[in-house]
Design goal:
Layout: H1 6-10, H2 15-19, H3 25-45, H4 50-66, H5 68-73, H6 80-96, H7 103-106
Helix pairs in contact: 3-4
Length: about 110
């Protein structure tokens, strides 16, 4: 199911990471794809409240956690700038779908 939310379609995910050559674009693409799949999941499942939203965001966070070794193998890492980009984008996604969520809870299972 493709994403249809107009705000999401116009948003530049992980722009800070794309602007920084420290982060390989191919890996940033993979992280962006996780965020877009999260958006598609929100649209498909239409979570009724924050608890249901957090289930989806936690799954996406775990997917990003799994990319950590790929970043390290490429001579990069999920460090402060990346963490801030991820947190901002998770918060944007929640807001774009009408949720006022605690950004720390959105990404609670993070390793970064």
């Amino acid at each position: 199911m493709p994403v249809t939310n107009a705000k999401v379609l116009q948003y530049a995910f992980l722009s800070g990471m794309y602007e920084d050559p420290y982060f390989p674009d191919a890996l940033v693409d993979r992280a962006r794809d996780v965020l877009l799949r999260l958006c598609a999941s929100i649209e498909r499942e239409a979570p009724a409240g924050l608890a249901a939203l957090y289930v989806l965001t936690h799954a996406a966070t775990e997917e990003i956690n799994a990319l950590e070794s790929a970043f390290e193998e490429a001579g990069s890492e999920i460090e402060t700038a990346a963490r801030e980009c991820f947190a901002e984008d998770f918060e944007f996604i929640a807001s774009a779908y009408g949720f006022e969520a605690d950004y720390e809870e959105l990404i609670a299972p993070r390793n970064w």
